[in-house]
Amino acid sequence: MTSFSRGSLTLQPSLARNRWNLLLTLTAGLFTALAVLPLIVVIAYVLLKGGSLITLQLLTALPPPPGLDGGGIGNAILGTLIVTLVAALIAVPVGVGAGVYLAEFASAGWFARFVRFGTNVLAGVPSIICGVFVYGLIVSTRLFFNQSYSALAGGIALAVLMLPTVIKTTDEALKLVPQELRWGAMGVGASRFITITRVTLPAAFSSIATGVVLAVARAAGETAPLIFTALFSPFWPEGLFNPIASMSVLIYNFAIMPYEAQIALAWASSFVLVVMILLANLLARWLGRFSST
Amino acid sequence: MSPSSSSPCFTLENVSISYGTNVAVRGVYMEIPRGKVTAFIGPSGCGKSTVLRSLNRMNDLIEGCSLKGRVLFENQDLYTRDVDPVEVRRRIGMVFQKPNPFPKSIYENIAFGARINGFRGDMDELVERSLRKAAIWDETKDKLKVSGYSLSGGQQQRLCIARAIAIEPEVILMDEPCSALDPISTLKIEEMMHELKKSYTIVIVTHNMQQAVRVSDMTGFFNVTANPDSDGKVGCLEEFADTEMIFNSPKQKATQDYVTGRFG
């Protein structure tokens, strides 16, 4: 004798709980589709608008003067690569060093807590503020050889932007390295320096590399920090201490010009930038695979 | 191996070890002889692993761990300010509970310790000798370039022992080296220990009393008692004597109860 009614074991779609189940599953699926829709549309639109414009000349030539046709975005591609490289050269050693300090030397002290908190805040700082900061610190004071706008200033602005990501991924990656591995190294008489450089960092290498690549990819597409640090240049890069072209600023400048040729270049530039960032993300996934083996 | 085999290898004088404010083990006096196998047995939480780690300053790596009393190795206090813990660990090697090979090749696992310790001999020969001593040469000689992770748990543990031997320490500390292994691997490691004790002093923590009987010359029984100062528990060394004494005619009732399986 039971105080509950026992139904049939066959699934009854008409039951209230089954109808709710179906409805909510569909709603969740719909919202998920809406969430990835912008990504697909943006990529499709850029591919459509910019993909057809890609030629060898476009990748290697300078932009034309206003009113003329043809030309390319060679200087902007090179400029983006240079500025991003400068940023990575600054942010990677500093960020990895800070991450090593946080994870290996000061995991619980007040200073580490302060730095971790500061890193999170820095990660949330709008990118334009990084630009204004570097503008005020370096550009307006003509810090480097009395030059104002420069590739180096742009690189520093992007480095500030990359830092929190690099610090956080290094910190997290090192924390995932099993403690036993450190003990093992210490147990055969390794100093802390040897333990970290020869055992712990290599074990965390692929996760750190993934984080670095993602940070680089993010920085490469930034416009705001570059507008008033690296500025723009219609010419080929002239060293680190002069203004330099970049794809993101080229898009910003050319997309709103009244000339067809410039607008086309902006689309082509968007395409190249999106493809580069896509490739960087694929590279990051590929690097990440090594951590599981 | 050593001329003065009469003097103890380690002398512990009134050693108490705490984690933060929590005393884990206290009042340990013991003399661990040279060239013998000494086993630590006792119920969980009695502080035997803690005492073992204090012998080569592994506890330094654990946040908030502090030690009172004196630990003498070769009549030198290991905890004075001028002692270099890295040098201590070079002379007193360690094998851990969980096999922890480096994510490198088998060859590199052995060569790593030797290289960082400034080894200048024939590395191939050292790798082979260490693997032979740890009774794993036959299984690995054809795949020295393969990652240490590809080995089975028992093989990994023997690899870790080979790694510890490669730097030619004077003492090898083993923290439950067989607890994660099957009986056959355990047997292999025990056989190996009989070989190793000809040239090394070995201190082993084990939960397995038969293992203590099989491999050790001296046994220390640790017990947990209620801490009179707080409501926590604290470990202490109940009895330390020849293994035969501990298992056949212990002086303490608690030891008797433990080794006959009446508690623990």
Give the class of chain A from helix and strand content and strand pairing: mainly alpha
Oligomer: heterodimer
For the secondary structure, the number of strands of chain B is 10
Which residues of chain B sit in consecutive blocks of at least 5 with pLDDT less than 50?
Answer: none
CATH architecture of chain B: 3-Layer(aba) Sandwich
> What proportion of the residues of chain B form beta strands (DSSP E)?
25-35%
Low-confidence stretches of chain A: none
Counting DSSP E segments of at least 2 residues, the number of strands of chain A comes to: 0
The ordered string of helix (H) and strand (E) elements of chain B is EEEHEEHEHHHHEHEHEEHH
* Class from secondary-structure proportions of chain B: alpha/beta
Q: Domains counted in the coordinates of chain B: how many? A: 1
Strand content range of chain A: under 5%
CATH superfamily of chain B: P-loop containing nucleotide triphosphate hydrolases
Classify the helix fraction of chain B into a percent range.
25-40%
Distance from first to last alpha carbon of chain B:
37 Å
Note the overall shape of chain B.
globular
Radius of gyration of chain A: 25 Å
Helix content of chain A: over 70%
Task: Count every helix of chain A, treating DSSP H or I runs of 4 or more residues as helices.
Answer: 11
Rounded average pLDDT of chain B: 86
